[in-house]
Amino acid sequence: MNIIKTYIEDVVIIEPRIFKDDRGYFFESFSERDFNTQVREVHFVQDNESKSSYGVLRGLHFQKPPFAQSKLVRCVRGAVLDVAVDIRKGSPTFGRWVSCELTEENHRQFFIPRGFAHGFSVLTPEVVFQYKCDNFYAPQSEGALAWDDPDLAIDWKIPADKVLLSEKDKHHGLLKEAPWLFDYQDDLYK
User: For 139-152, how does the pLDDT look when each residue is reduced to its tens digit (9 = 90+)?
Assistant: First the structure.
């Protein structure tokens, strides 16, 4: 696998080696050994999948400690814009975000470490999206940011009037008002 570093430390894009012939293609989508050696040591415990249509925006979500999660995400049908926002107070990249287009053609994966909010927008008529988490879902630990926070100014690559949100995602607060931020000095992997 090819690891592409982003301008935010520990947030990486992963490109698998794809073997193609007249029958189709094959690639190894995950190897714990290679991931732990080349990205960081993480033990994924839960896999999730969602199906969405054009304009759906899911995010910006995270889980607070002690249930913080890393995510390894990919799009197996269609295309999404995937976004990771640094919400670690004291971080040199606090409040900055990285995005990556994940498609069924490029087979890229995006690693979002603990201490980041995560979201994605659907760019094609239909999307099937998969992600691995290194901690179990804990509803009492949910946190989220407003997808349209003006201080973040994320370009979701879809017109605002086409954005489809869950009822819950319509009511999240702004980063500058957030009382529940991670601390950059904390080891979130202990």
Answer: 999 999 999 999 99
Query: Residue 155: which CATH number?
Result: 2.60.120.10
Q: State residue 98's pLDDT score.
A: 98
Asked whether residue 189 is domain-assigned, the answer is no
Q: Pick the catalytic residue from 61, 107, 172, 184.
A: 61
- Range with the poorest average pLDDT among 14-18, 71-75, 87-91: 14-18
- Structural domains of the chain, count: 1
Task: Identify whether 189 is a catalytic site residue.
Answer: no
DSSP 32: H
Beta bridge partners of 142: 63
Residue 184 pLDDT grade (very low, low, confident, very high; cuts 50, 70, 90): very high
Residue 47 lies in a domain: yes
3-state SS assignment for residue 168? helix
Among the listed residues 107, 118, 131, 172, the single catalytic one is: 131
Is 131 one of the annotated active-site residues of the chain? yes
Q: Which residues contact 24 (CB under 8 A, 6 or more apart)?
A: none
The answer to whether position 190 is within a domain reads: no
180 or 44: whose pLDDT is higher? 44
Q: Which residue range forms the structural domain that includes residue 106?
A: 2-183
Residue 46 lies in a domain: yes
d(CA 50, CA 66): 25
